[in-house]
Amino acid sequence: EVCRDKCDAVLPLVRLLLHHHKLVPFVAAVAELDLKDTQEANTIFRGNSLATRCVDEMMKIVGKHYLKVTLKPVIDEVGYPPETSLGMLSPLGYLCLLDRHSCENLRYYVDKVFREIVRSSISCPTIMCDVFYSLRHLAAKRFPNDPHVQYSAVSSFVFLRFFAVAVVSPHTFHLRPHHPDAQTSRTLTLISKAIQTLGSWGSLNKSKLSSFKETFMCEFFKTFQEEKFTESVKKFLDDVSSTESKEPSGVSEPVHLKEG
């Protein structure tokens, strides 16, 4: 009500609450208010509310090093060397299924990014795990008859609003020094779209696949219709939304809350 743009308020608010160790109860409170207006379980935390923006900013602040150790090696690999890049992409960035080499390379990159993400839970910052734990239980309480909502509440943040966004815009998350060139950008867009689909709980079924606008994506994702992918996502979401103490991973990095 005070700020015309939520962006002006959210970042200093999140930094202040992080500093005073009050972010988790605050996010839980505003998320509970957000859920009261959510009528469908499949739209949970999909808008740009105060709750979702706070979680977004929190992940950007405390998750920088987590992203770096998880994604940077494979992001650096995309497009280098030229002969392994997805060269046969149309101007719109859609993959031509006739180019088998491009399909194999896309599958390689998606596999690698997905594998790095689902085995990275030990590196997930504790504050992120605590927030996801709260969101998971609030979602289950709001939609008690939907066994999957507790997972989609977490995946809507960690996959759709964190990993997938970092893949498609690595320069904004300091994973690459500059904006990627057009060809690399198209490749990253396809990888990001694939990660969003894999990370969306229960999305790899026939009814969901038929909703893809691009025929090639339907064909491409048929290769991912295996239970092991769904189980990997489920285990990862369980791990990052747990309050159990994790072993020190040796990858922590101090968070700077003051600027200027």
TrEMBL record:
Keyword terms: GTPase activation
Chain segments carrying region Disordered: 238-260
Ras-GAP domain ranges (all copies): 5-200
GO MF terms, alphabetically ordered: GTPase activator activity
Matches recorded under InterPro entries: Ras_GTPase (IPR039360), RasGAP_CS (IPR023152), RasGAP_dom (IPR001936), Rho_GTPase_activation_prot (IPR008936)
A Pfam family: RasGAP
Name this polypeptide is given: RASA2 protein
Organism: Chaetops frenatus (Rufous rock-jumper)
Gene: Rasa2
